[in-house]
Amino acid sequence: MTNRQPIDVLFAISDTGGGHRSAAVAISAALELMSGKSITWAIEDLLQATNVPGIRSAPGIYDQLSTRWLKLYNFSFRLTDSQSTVSFLSRIVYLIARQNLDRLLSERQPRLVVVTHPLVHRLVCAARRRRRHAFRVLTVVTDLVSLHASWSYPGVDLALTPTDEAYRLMHKRGMKPSQLQRCGFPVHPKFAAENRDAPTARRDLGFDPDRFTVLLTAGGVGSGRLGELVQMLEQQMPDKQFLVVTGKNRALYEELRNGPRLPYTHLFGFVHNMEELMAASDVVVTKAGPGTLMEALVMRKPVIVTEAVGLQEHGNIDFVLNYELGFFCPTNERIVAAIASLEDPERYAATVERLKHAVPRDGAIQIARIIHQQLNLQSVIRQV
User: Fold this and answer.
1) What is the full DSSP assignment across 4-38?
2) Is the Cβ–Cβ distance between 287 and 307 less than 8 Å?
3) By Cβ atoms counted within 10 A, which residue in 2, 72, 263, 276 is the most buried?
4) Cα torsion 197, 198, 203, 209: sign
5) How far is CA 15 from CA 49, 166, 219, 234, 275, in A?
6) Cα 295 from Cα 290, distance rounded (Å)
7) Residue 58: what pLDDT?
8) Is 231 left (phi over 0), alpha (psi -120 to 50) or beta?
9) If pLDDT is split at 50, 70 and 90, which confidence band does 381 have?
């Protein structure tokens, strides 16, 4: 039995990776900043809610494919990268899962459904048609450049893209300009609100305020390569300060903690104050996942991108390079060279200046404003 209450906004996600839920959390935080508790909302994993074997296990399957079977993941990406294929598969899933999905939406009675996962909006719109629900559907795209075809679906009322590249691609794939709007990426508002300069943030956190500081993160699940990188950086750059976030990889954290560390290497597991660590840093070293990458860019920090996990992240590397916001360094040796390059004051200042014009800082707030508009429009339609 569930205890679902009616709400204003339903965030329809899937926990395949952490970025889709993080986007929903960021937008909901922006909604609360603007409206307090006057707008009610909830987050639901719709792929799990289908209860269809295989589909309900999507988060676990994704984690395995993206970490251990990346070639198979990329093969499946290519195999399904057409709107006709995705629409066909979505119809099959909905036919099997329609009772579960219809029940969820009937219990929630949302006025607006905000979708942050590309495999969800077709299911939501199918249920809306079948049950003649009045809610509107808003898609928030959480990839930057290399969009899977599933993101483009004319059945939604509005789709928000984080980049011009994403806007153009979705338009090319059949979305009308009236259905598309360019706004910022849904980064949690706390990142834009963090306005301390790096020395002040370092001092407040107990770090050396005057030492060039590098934040290294491999994402929420952590990465074994991070351990090798830390050792190399300590050997070749012993004068630098390193903030190392291992994420949920507890084994890596313990391995680094038990090894001989330099006094200015600070270790963290999974953190909830990434905005503070970024504020304290001069450079951020990360994978090409859009979440951490955009958080760093919103904080106006040059980035060193180490790798892309899956074909959908390759365009993120191009985004960084095309706008000269940092470096792509697939080897540890190139990471060392890139950090040394960014120590040059003129080069660092020029990169930071480009960052000021590359991405909006208030993406989540922009999206929250659009949600308000959609709720008002839905109210007018319902009254008519």
Assistant:
1) ----SEEEEE--SSSHHHHHHHHHHHHHHHHHTTS
2) yes
3) 276
4) negative
5) 12, 22, 15, 35, 22
6) 8
7) 81
8) alpha
9) very low
Burial environment of residue 175 by CB neighbours within 10 A (0 to 12, 13 to 18, 19 or more): buried
Long-range Cβ contacts of 16-20 (<8 Å, 24+ apart): 16/47, 16/58, 16/59, 16/61, 16/62, 16/117, 17/62, 17/63, 17/66, 17/289, 18/219, 18/220, 18/291, 19/142, 19/289, 19/290, 19/291, 20/116, 20/117, 20/142
For residue 179, what are its two tokens? 């259905």
Burial class (CB in 10 A: 0-12, 13-18, 19+), 132: exposed
**Amino acid 322: pLDDT:** 94
pLDDT tens profile 190-221: 999 999 999 999 999 999 999 999 999 976 44
Q: First and final CA of the chain: distance in angstroms?
A: 35
Give the pLDDT mean for 378-384. Answer: 48
Please, where are the H alpha helices in 109-249? 121-131, 164-172, 189-193, 198-205, 225-236
- Residue 69: which residues within 8 A CB-CB, separation 6 or more? none
Q: Please report where in the chains the tokens 């090894």 appear, as a residue.
A: 259
Burial classification of residue 346, based on how many CB atoms lie within 10 Å of its CB (0-12 exposed, 13-18 middle, 19 or more buried):
exposed
Q: Give the model confidence (pLDDT) of 11-68 as tens digits.
A: 999 988 778 999 999 999 999 999 888 899 999 999 999 988 888 878 788 777 777 7
| Edge-to-edge strand list for the sheet holding 158-161 | 41-45, 9-13, 112-115, 136-140, 158-161, 180-182
User: For residue 17, what are its two tokens?
Assistant: 């990776």
241-245 β-sheet, strand order = 265-268, 241-245, 213-217, 283-286, 303-305, 326-328
For the entire predicted model, the pTM comes to 0.91
